[in-house]
Amino acid sequence: MPAAIWRWLRYAPLTFWVIGGVGVAVGTVLRVLDGAGVEWWKAGPVRAGFEEFGQSVLWVTVPALLIAVLTAGSLGALALYVENWWGLRTEWSDDRTLTVRRGLLTTRSVGIERDRLRGVMLREPLLLRAGGGATVQAVAGGLGDAEEAQRRGSLLPPAPRATALRVAAGALRRSDTSPFRQPSLTTHPRAALHQRVRRGLYLAVLPPVVTLLALGVLLTPVLLHCAWMYAAVATVTVWLLARDAHRSLGHGLSGPYLLTRSGTFSRDTLALRRDTIAAWTLTTSPYGRRHGLVTLTAAVAAGRHGYRIPDLDAGEAPAFAAAASPGILDEWLVR
User: Of 139, 171, 203, which marks where a domain is finished?
Assistant: First the structure.
């Protein structure tokens, strides 16, 4: 195992599996017990544990439970990281094949032909980005469906962003990291920010607030105070996340590559070979039509098979698509 990967272990807890892994493990155990007909919730130790938890001081027991979950999740994430990425080697084994070899208990080796490599994606999930890390994903054909392509196309685990930039550039056979380091991307209209704020308010703020208000009127006034406190905190959170998502939006062209960046929970920067784009789809919503926003989707025979550039200016989107892949939209453009 390369010495560098031991230093990268600090990025393992900054992933979904810290909490999600615990949920998956608990769910698997409960499903097995249910399949065996075991009524685990009736067991004496389980009932005693629930009673003790309910009778204890919650401001002590709840943080203690959260710490226990995070500790278990972190240990699990570290174990998965080592098992999946032990002995990592990502290299061009010859001029035509990019090879990724990794694994401790099970050695995995994936060869990606150069002709099937459509591009590279730099992924920066929120926690990993806060810690200065990133992962690298190959966009290639012949790796299976979207889920299999994501698993088999992984070129680098959570690692320092500088390392991820070098791996992404190496996969593109470039001597520099210019497509990713500070890409010159066109920003998106401010209406895209407003759309994200509205969506967050409608989905994350309004339903819980209405529910708490209704329960407060029917049950106890305490829930009325919970409603306004939740509304205040959630509204600020939605605004901050929407602003970050809007700042992440961008698109552009860099030589033979189309560049697009989007996302806040996972900010993804994609460098896609322009000559591999098979078709374009332009979609919009009622809000988008009113405010001049269009989402472009590039159809590619690889990876997810479609890569979105969300919320472009409606007047610029067709021209950008035509410039990125000449000939596809020519018959639809008004000269």
Answer: 171
Q: How far apart are CA 331 and CA 182, in angstroms?
A: 35
pLDDT band (50, 70, 90) for residue 75: confident
Q: Residue 309 has which token pair? A: 């550039």
Torsion, Cα of 203, 206, 210, 211 (10° steps): 30
Q: Tell whether 44 and 113 lie within a shared domain.
A: no
Same domain assignment for residues 60 and 12: yes
Q: Is residue 315 part of a domain?
A: no
Q: Looking at residue 9, what DSSP letter applies? A: G
Q: Where are the alpha helices (DSSP H) in the chain?
A: 3-8, 17-35, 44-55, 58-85, 126-130, 146-152, 161-171, 190-200, 206-218, 222-248, 286-291, 317-324
Q: Distance between CA 261 and CA 183 in Å, rounded?
A: 10
> How far is it, in rounded angstroms, from Cα 298 to Cα 272?
9
pLDDT tens per residue across span 252-286: 998 899 999 999 999 999 999 999 999 999 999 99
Segments forming the whole domain that contains residue 225: 190-246
In a domain, 185, yes or no: no
**Closest by alpha carbon to 124, among 94, 167, 158, 174?**
158
Question: Which of 246, 267, 287 delimits the end of a domain?
Answer: 246
Per-residue pLDDT, 1: 43
pLDDT number for residue 61: 72
Q: Give the model confidence (pLDDT) of 157-203 as tens digits.
A: 999 999 999 999 999 887 666 667 656 789 999 999 999 999 999 99
Question: What φ, ψ does residue 30 adopt, rounded to 5°?
Answer: -65, -35
Q: Are residues 14 and 66 in the same domain?
A: yes
Judged against a pLDDT cut of 90, whether residue 54 lies above it is answered with: no
Residue 152 inside a domain? The answer is yes
